[in-house]
Amino acid sequence: MKKYQCTVCGYVYDPTVGDPDGGIAPGTTFENLPDDWVCPECGVGKDMFEALDD
């Protein structure tokens, strides 16, 4: 599963961890995050994230 990085603050969404504080279970891919999910560090939307190379 691909990791995604916030282009604003550098937070990395790791699907193997999820976003426990945001109610996102481990194993949730970035594509399957709710449309209204925001970066837990700076609050920007999914459109401000880019995929990281493996």
Can you describe what's shown?
The protein is built from no helices and three strands. By secondary structure, it is mostly beta strands. Strands 2-1-3 form a three-stranded antiparallel beta sheet, with no helix packed on it. The radius of gyration is 10 Å and the shape is globular. 11% of the residues are buried.
Ordered list of secondary-structure elements with their pairings:
Blueprint: E1 4-6, E2 12-13, E3 49-51
Antiparallel strand pairs: 1-2, 1-3
**Cα end-to-end separation:** 9 Å
Strand order of the largest sheet: 2-1-3
Overall spatial form = globular
Q: Sketch the topology as an H/E string, one letter per element.
A: EEE
Query: What's the number of helices?
Result: 0
* Protein structure class: mainly beta
Major β-sheet annotation: 3 strands, antiparallel
Radius of gyration, in angstroms, nearest whole number: 10 Å
Tell how many strands the DSSP assignment holds.
Answer: 3
Helix share bin: under 10%
**Uncertain spans, ≥5 residues at pLDDT below 50?**
none
Average pLDDT figure: 97
Q: What is the beta-strand fraction?
A: 5-15%
Summarize the structure.
With 54 residues, the chain is mainly beta. It contains no helices and three strands. The chain has a three-stranded antiparallel sheet with strand order 2-1-3, with no helix packed on it.
List its salient traits.
54 residues, mainly beta, three-stranded antiparallel beta sheet, 3 strands, 0% helix, globular
